[in-house]
Amino acid sequence: MNVLITGGAGYIGSVLLRQLAEEQLLGVRRIRILDNMQEEKFQSLMNLPEGLDYDFVLGDIRSEEDVRKAIGDDTDVVIHLAALCNAPLSFERRDATEQINYQGTLNLVKAAREAPSVRRFLYASTCSVYGPTEGIVYEDSECHPASPYGEFKLKGEGDVLALEEATGGRLKPTVLRFATVYGYSEGLRVHTVINIFAFRAAVGAPLEVHGTGEQKRPFIHVNDVARALVFCLENGQTEGGVFNIVGENASVNDILRLMEPRFPRLQVVHTDEQLLNQFSYEVDCSKISMLGFTPRYTLEDGIDEFSRLYGAFTRKPLALT
Known about the structure:
By secondary structure, the protein is α/β, with parallel strands linked by helices. The chain is 34% helix and 20% strand.
């Protein structure tokens, strides 16, 4: 099996590369990465496990030529991760979000549709497609995305899911709606809630909490994100489906309670200022759980991980003599 991973040097891709190689799963022979390296995460490509062939295409999903070159005539699986992923910032860069998250996806869909070798297309979507909700949301809940990020991810879902009919059943798509991702990876992205909270808590920079802090969000560890992608490749029952990928739902206050004993420099500042995209919602993930996928990592595991990584700032000061 030959796999193409777009955004393969990024936050999730850098973990997925290693999981596919280390576990020797699925008969994967070659992994090709398409990445424009705009975020300069060169370290993601270093020290990759042996046992597989690796290709790299320095290109952009907005370029039809780059996409066709990356898929070539021998790609069996496309895993599409490349995207602009900061929902609050997507309000300021709506055009760029549309060009990358939607037009880039259309380029990949078109190229995969025309490439007879491609059999699977896994699309990294987001729980942000749901928008403001009441109660717990499921895959069949109505979607009302409240940010350009969620809006264009949702539009991309439709084009990806149409691939099966467009190819006469040859190409089986799967859409994964990821919760807010956290945890360390070689391609670490810091702007997500827990990752940036951990840094600021470690160094003593104030954490700004909007409102009561009781607003909830779904979360998932980056290692479990990669595991979910591998699970879907292995499990034929995921073909043609849409799946929420969630570890647990938690409030900001829940996160702070876990951080407090681990980050001695933690400072919290409360504000009533309104922040874009800061609504509360909870997401159910029983659909994929019933197929056998279970997250391995908890929020406590992830916060412990960051506490160890920032150990120079989280250890107690040496006693004065």
